C-alpha cells in the first residue's frame, strides 16, 4: 500500500546507510511461516509487522497471508530498504506465497483462492488489483487509505475483477492509522531519525545537504 499522507516515503532514506540486516531485528516476537493463527490473530501479526516497519523507517504497513489456518507469508513494506517503490507488504507476500507453493509442490492458483489476507492498511490500487487478479479468498484490512486505496476509497478495483475478493474493512483501524501518523510525525521512539526532506522553498543552489 501507499501511505495516507502528502509526504512521499520515496524521499526518505537517501543516505544509503541503513543496513539490511538491522532492518530485520524484530522488536517483538513475530510469528513465522507455518505457525497457526485464527482470524483475530491474523491482524495481530500484521500489526506487529507494521510496528517493525515503523521501527526501521519504512511506511508502517504489515501483511499476513493465511492458508488453512496457517501463515504462508508475512510481509511489510520494504520500499526504502530496496529502493523499489513497488515493494509493498502485499507484493512481498505474494512473491513469498509463490515460493512457498513451489517448495511445497502446490498449485498457486488453488492456494491463493483459499488464502485470507490480513493487512493493516487498505491495499493501494496496485496491490488491490493484484489481489483481486489472484482471486484471494478474503482481504481484511485496518484503516482506509485516503490517497491510494484500491478497495473502494479511491478506486474499487473489485469492480474490474471477474471474481472479486471478499473485503472486510476497519479491523483495528485506529491502531493502524496511529502507526501511519507516528511515521509521518516521526514520533516513534524506536525509529531512526526520519530523513524526510522538508520542502522549505528557501534553499539556494549554494546550499547542500
Ligand atoms: Zn500497495
TrEMBL record:
MF terms (GO), sorted A to Z: metal ion binding; tRNA-specific adenosine-34 deaminase activity
Family matches, as PROSITE patterns: CYT_DCMP_DEAMINASES_2 (PS51747)
Superkingdom, natural source: Eukaryota
InterPro entries: CMP_dCMP_dom (IPR002125), Cytidine_deaminase-like (IPR016193)
Name assigned to this protein: tRNA-specific adenosine deaminase 2-like isoform X2
Region feature (Disordered): 1-23, 187-209
CC terms in the record's Gene Ontology section: cytoplasm; nucleus
Amino acid at each position: 500500500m501507499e501511505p495516507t499522507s502528502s509526504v512521499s516515503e520515496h524521499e526518505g532514506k537517501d543516505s544509503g546507510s541503513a543496513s539490511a540486516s538491522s532492518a530485520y531485528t524484530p522488536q517483538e516476537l513475530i510469528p513465522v511461516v507455518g505457525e497457526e493463527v485464527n482470524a483475530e490473530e491474523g491482524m495481530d501479526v500484521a500489526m506487529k509487522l507494521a510496528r517493525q516497519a515503523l521501527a526501521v523507517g519504512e511506511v508502517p504497513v504489515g501483511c499476513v497471508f493465511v492458508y488453512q489456518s496457517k501463515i504462508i507469508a508475512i510481509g511489510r513494506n520494504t520500499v526504502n530498504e530496496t529502493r523499489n517503490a513497488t515493494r509493498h507488504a502485499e507484493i512481498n507476500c505474494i512473491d513469498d506465497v509463490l515460493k512457498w507453493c513451489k517448495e511445497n509442490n502446490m498449485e498457486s492458483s488453488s492456494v491463493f483462492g483459499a488464502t485470507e489476507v490480513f493487512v493493516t492498511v487498505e491495499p493501494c490500487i496496485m496491490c488491490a488489483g493484484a489481489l483481486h487478479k489472484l482471486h484471494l479468498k478474503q482481504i481484511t484490512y485496518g484503516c482506509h487509505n485516503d490517497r491510494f486505496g484500491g478497495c473502494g476509497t479511491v478506486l474499487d478495483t473489485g469492480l474490474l475483477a471477474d471474481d472479486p475478493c471478499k473485503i472486510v474493512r476497519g479491523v483495528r483501524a485506529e491502531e493502524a492509522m496511529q502507526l501511519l501518523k507516528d511515521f509521518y510525525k516521526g514520533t516513534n521512539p524506536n525509529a531512526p531519525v526520519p530523513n524526510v526532506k522538508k520542502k522549505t522553498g528557501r534553499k539556494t543552489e549554494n546550499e547542500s545537504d
